[in-house]
Structure formats: C-alpha cells, structure tokens
Q: What sequence folds into this?
C-alpha cells in the first residue's frame, strides 16, 4: 500500500510565525509592563499557596496573545499557562507563558518576561522571550540561530560551572532538600548560583552567556520551550523535554547549559533527581 508523508513546513511558514511571535511578545510585553506599573491595583489569587500566584494581568495578556495567534494562524494549536490547550490541525502548537515570574512581578521586581514558543512534532522550532523591563527581545528559529535585539548569540565553549553563575529554579512541588543538595554540590564543585524566579528569563540568560546553565526539577512546557530553542540555537545543550501527545501537558525536569558546563551540571542534577527525599 502506498503511503504519503506530510511535507516539512516551508521556510515561509516558519519565518512568518517568527515575525508574528516577535511582534506579539513585544506588544504583550508592553501590555504587561503597564500592568506592572499599576500592580497595586491588581487582584492577586493563590494557585497552590502564596508562592504560586496569578493576577488578572497574566490572564489578560495571555488572552491577547491567543486571540492574535488564532486570527493569524487558525489551524495552529495553542497551549497557555492560564487558559490551557486548544488543539490544532496544522502540526504546529504554540506554548505561551504570558508572564513567567508572576511572584517577582507582583512584588515589584523586574525578573519576569513574556515567553512564546512554537512546537513542531514536539520540538521547539521558534522561541521568543521578551524582557519588558530591560527592553530586550531574544529570538530563535530552528537552524537559523539565536539573537538578542537582532544581534547574534554564540556561546563560549570555554565557560564552565567554575567560571560563571548557574541558574537554579525551585517551586512548591519540589522537595526543598533536593534544591539544597544541588546548591551544596554546586558550591563544593567550585561553582556559584543565582535565582530570579523566572525560568524563561534564566534560559534566555543561558543563551546570552550571562549564566553558564540553568536547572529546575519540575517545569511545564510553557515555562521552558522558548528558552530551549534559544539555548540550542546559541550553541548550548538541553536535557530532552517530552512534549508530544499527552506529555505536552505534564511537567518534567529542565536543564540547559553551554557546552563547557553541560556535562558537569548534568551529573549534579541527575544525582539530585535520583536521590530519595523521604
């Protein structure tokens, strides 16, 4: 029996989506920044406790992004942190985090961003992260490299855990001892760490070489896949993140680093993930 395979997406299909993603991230960033400046007026709700919060800004910014994506590419699927998954038929699925780092956002800290990824067969082929407080737009297209405000990003393979900072993420679904053990191991290895509270922002920093790597034991697709695309296109490495079928809706460990730090950071993080925390 003769079988047919679906043709690969055209370059035009991807570049048109990248153009929209970049524009949307910047416009959504402006919208979120306006809310940020008026944050005392926002109604804040707790999801799983006061370390995991959401505001009307998160919901409205995501609605804005989703509506624009639906208008431009109605056959694409969309997964957003606040409004869930809308299935598509094009083979493309967007993963959107309207404000990654809401805790920092509502407390008046600039450690938050807008994150937009496009997936094809479970792999991120577009990643755009906008840092409104810094006026920075990180963008990447599969096979075409990564940029920061239009300037190419290239990771230095000589950077190691010992010559820079490692980003660490944590949340209330992760045993505190796991994070403590990881930090202890990192310090014992001669490294140091930083935490901002926004995984997407930290992954953008990995792509820019500002931190040597980033790890968080449990994240969702919308938190990390735009950053994964950026890191890979800048010359870094990432721990596989399952994102096809039902796996797209399930959290998983996230690890990304420059080529000189990935191996050692992988060993540290795998030891923490495999340990028992009774």
A:
């Amino acid at each position: 029996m003769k079988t047919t395979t679906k043709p690969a997406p055209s370059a035009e299909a991807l570049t048109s989506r990248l153009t929209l993603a970049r524009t949307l991230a910047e416009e959504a960033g402006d919208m979120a920044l306006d809310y940020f400046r008026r944050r005392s007026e926002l109604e804040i709700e707790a999801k799983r406790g006061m370390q995991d919060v959401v505001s009307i800004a998160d919901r409205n910014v995501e609605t804005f992004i989703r509506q624009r994506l639906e208008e431009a590419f109605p056959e694409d699927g969309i997964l957003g942190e606040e409004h869930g998954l809308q299935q598509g038929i094009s083979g493309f699925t967007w993963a959107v985090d309207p404000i990654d780092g809401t805790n920092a956002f509502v407390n008046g800290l600039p450690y938050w961003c807008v994150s937009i990824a496009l997936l094809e067969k479970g792999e991120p082929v577009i990643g755009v992260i906008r840092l409104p407080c810094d006026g920075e737009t990180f963008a990447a297209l599969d096979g075409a490299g990564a940029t920061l405000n239009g300037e190419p990003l290239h990771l230095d393979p000589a950077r190691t855990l010992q010559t820079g900072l490692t980003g660490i993420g944590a949340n209330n679904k992760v045993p505190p001892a796991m994070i403590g053990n990881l930090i202890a191991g990192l310090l014992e290895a001669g490294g140091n760490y930083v935490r901002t509270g926004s995984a997407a922002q930290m992954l953008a920093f990995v792509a820019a070489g500002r931190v040597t790597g980033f790890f968080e034991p449990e994240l969702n697709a919308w938190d990390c896949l735009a950053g994964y695309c950026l890191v890979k296109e800048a010359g870094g490495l990432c721990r596989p993140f399952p994102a096809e079928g039902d796996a797209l809706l399930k959290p998983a460990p996230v690890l990304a680093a420059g080529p000189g730090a990935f191996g050692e950071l992988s060993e540290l993080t795998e030891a923490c993930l495999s340990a028992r925390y009774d």
Summary: The helical segments are 11-37, 56-72, 102-106, 176-188, 199-208, 221-233, 262-274.
